[in-house]
Amino acid sequence: LAKTRAECHASREMWLVGAVVLSLVFESGRSELAFSASFGEDSTLDGFVKSEDGRYSGQVVSVDDGGLKLVGANQHYGLAAPVEFATQGGSLVFQYDVTLTEGLTCGGAYVKLLEKTDSLEAASFDDKTPYVIMFGPDKCGATDKVHFIVRQQNPVSGEWLEHHLKGGPKAKSDKKAHMYTAIVRPNDALEILIDGESAFSGSLQYSLEPPLTPPTEIDDPDDVKPSDWVDEAKINDPDAKKPDDWDEDAPRKIPDESAVKPAAWEDDEPETIPDPEAARPNDWDDEEDGIWEPPLVANPKCEAAGCGVWERPMVDNPDFKGKWKPPKIENPDYKGEWAPRKIPNTHYFEAKNPAKSLPSIGAVAIEIWTTNGGIVYDNFALGDSPDDAKVFASDFYAKKAAEEEAKKKKKLEKDAKKLEKKLERGDFTAKLQLALNQAVDLAKEQPTAAAVTILGLMAAIFAFLFGAFRIKPPAPAADDDDDAARATTQQQDSAAAPDQQAADADGGDDDDDDPKPPRDD
């Protein structure tokens, strides 16, 4: 029994050790990034190799402005960094940041994750090299979006198709750095982040066009619409006739007969005159520069009403009807919209767990055409952990936060200068704004004291409003008789003043001797 217990105890210890080792291998082995690249001041391509294919002839790439910079405009670019990555049933996370130092008029700033094959060579790949995913911003004409394209082979037909994201986010085409992140999870969930914020959520199964799983039925390519099929729902009324009084030649606009030429109109004045304040430049040479003429400016005599030949303004013609057309009526022969019949799709298959079926990735490639130069890539990361990718880009987010803080500080300084100017003018609203700003700052440090300050501020605002809008009754107008009466009254008051003072000295009148009730307060 003791031996059995000892063996069990030893086996348990070995199992625990094995479990710990297995856990460590799983966590460390699957949490590290499979590929990462940041570009500092060492002026190296950090694993990227420029393709020697003739398509990219003349491409100039440098490490500048804090990243991998595509220098020239109107150029095809092709460079790739070899990697080895397979989802193995886990997530796929890919991110990078890009700065469009010259904007983006027409071109891409995306990245391709090339499929791992025996023939893949970073130094010789081209635009036809198979990829697994293409991801990133693209803008040209009506196109303005963040691409997410999955390339998949139909196992039945052997055909390769590109499946594009539907309703994806718009590209950021300003000149600031932006971080693009694509996350594909084992349950086929798809998420796209821009600068760490979610910009799209969907799935590989339902967010791509065409869908990864083809339809079970398709249109019959051999079905043809019958020659006698009528698919016009409405037709011109064959019995309708143009009215006899219908004038197709009547103009849409006619002169306004009620208009009258303004009295100040100057018929003989030009609309522009030579600038009377213009002076011939001292260095003007008639032989080299030609005869100098002052620039033309608006004629001030035309400002009142106008100059030149006066014409009546045009107004809508009440008799205008335009070209006559017969009204539409229901078509009695209408059969409805024709569509080819459906037949079973012989190339149908069900794409099960497409996230787990993604091919292995053999290279991270920049393969674009752009009319704008100065595209700067940085902070590439490929792995299976969104957290690891975010930690890797911590410097980017710290820089982004610092830029936002600097922007806010600059705005506050600008607002403070405006407020200072208002205070110098004695603007009451500026004083209120200053007090409110101080109350907000106080609230962050001392909430209780801030509440008292805000109550006082509200009381001041109410007092100002009621005082500003209080209406005082007008004083009655005084005539001569009122002035005389007012003067007589003042003389009588002055004469009675000494007697009143004496009475006050003697103790006042009889009413003052009466006892008064005590005050409640």
Describe the structure.
- It is a single chain.
- With 521 residues, the protein is an alpha+beta fold.
- The chain has seven helices and 25 strands.
- It has helices spanning 2-31, 286-289, 386-392, 394-424, 428-445, 447-469, 480-505; strands at residues 35-37, 49-50, 61-64, 67-70, 75-85, 92-100, 107-108, 111-115, 131-140, 143-153, 160-165, 177-184, 189-194, 197-203, 208-209, 217-219, 234-236, 253-255, 272-274, 296-298, 314-316, 328-330, 342-344, 361-370, 375-383.
- The strands form six sheets. Strands 2, 5, 7, 8, 9, 10, 11, 15 and 24 form a nine-stranded antiparallel β-sheet that branches. Strands 1, 3, 4, 6, 12, 13, 14 and 25 form an eight-stranded antiparallel β-sheet that branches. A two-stranded antiparallel ribbon has the order 16-23.
- α4 runs antiparallel to α5 and α5 runs antiparallel to α6.
- It is extended.
Strand residue percentage? 25-35%
How many helices? The count is 7
- The helix-and-strand class reads alpha+beta
Give the N-terminus to C-terminus distance in angstroms.
98 Å
Radius of gyration: 43 Å
Low confidence ranges: 1-6, 8-31, 501-516
Sheet of most strands: 9 strands, antiparallel
Net shape: extended
Q: What's the helical proportion of residues?
A: 25-40%
Strands, total number: 25
Give the mean pLDDT: 83
Secondary-structure topology with pairs:
Layout: H1 2-31, E1 35-37, E2 49-50, E3 61-64, E4 67-70, E5 75-85, E6 92-100, E7 107-108, E8 111-115, E9 131-140, E10 143-153, E11 160-165, E12 177-184, E13 189-194, E14 197-203, E15 208-209, E16 217-219, E17 234-236, E18 253-255, E19 272-274, H2 286-289, E20 296-298, E21 314-316, E22 328-330, E23 342-344, E24 361-370, E25 375-383, H3 386-392, H4 394-424, H5 428-445, H6 447-469, H7 480-505
Antiparallel strand pairs: 1-25, 2-5, 3-4, 4-25, 5-24, 6-12, 6-25, 7-9, 8-9, 8-24, 9-10, 10-11, 11-15, 12-13, 13-14, 16-23, 17-22, 18-21, 19-20
Helix pairs in contact: 4-5, 5-6
